[in-house]
Description:
Blueprint: H1 6-13, H2 23-33, E1 41-48, E2 60-64, E3 75-78, H3 84-89, E4 94-96, H4 98-105, E5 113-116, H5 121-125, H6 128-131, H7 149-157, E6 160-164, E7 170-177, H8 182-198, E8 209-216, E9 222-224, H9 226-229
Parallel strand pairs: 3-4, 3-5
Antiparallel strand pairs: 1-7, 1-8, 2-6, 8-9
Helix pairs in contact: 2-8
Amino acid sequence: MSKLTKNQKIALGKIEPDKAYRLSEAAALLREITYTKFDASVDIDVRLGVDPRKANQMVRGVVTLPHGTGKQTRVLVLATPDKEKEALEAGADMFGLDDYIEKIKGGWTDVDVIITTPAVMGKVGALGRILGPRGLMPNPKTGTVTMEVGKAVQEVKAGKIDFKVDKYGIVHAGIGKVSFTPEQIVDNAKEFMTTIQKLKPSAAKGTYVLSVYLSSTMSPGLQIDPKSVDTKN
Length: 233
């Protein structure tokens, strides 16, 4: 195990072992225990009482965070030329079709979100082996295959993210930056958790939310008392 730096030791010293923090406490503490020189991302990890191998227990959805994610999201629109003006006016970073499809076939994936239209999904579908593993494949369920290209671009730029439970039953999402105020982190976390609750599969039995952790890039995870994430608190 690598030796802890002085800053890491100080950060660890501020955490109470085995404590389940209230969400507001953890959001305030994150800034104190993050020792990166850059504006670190704030991540939430939610372990769910579901079996993701069963289709009727898959948890997947989209949420628009009230304060956005804090990061610049690079959006590529793959569509026919008639959609170019709409896409670029809405804030798309890149627009095209065949030229970008060829670039992606060659291994290029320097983008965060891809939005396309139903008409060209035949062409885009052929990129599944490259885009799928990177979480970049457009999907009607997440609003990234649509005729309303401009609206989809604006939503992504405003802080709309999509997520799904992994094979271990955990949902991971970036919900802000350490530079956010604790209140902004709390708002985003509660919005995210509200969406998770709404997506509870009827086939899931027993406790649904098993644990919630909040962390930043390279900070230790803080265990959150699930009751404090309830939007009524």
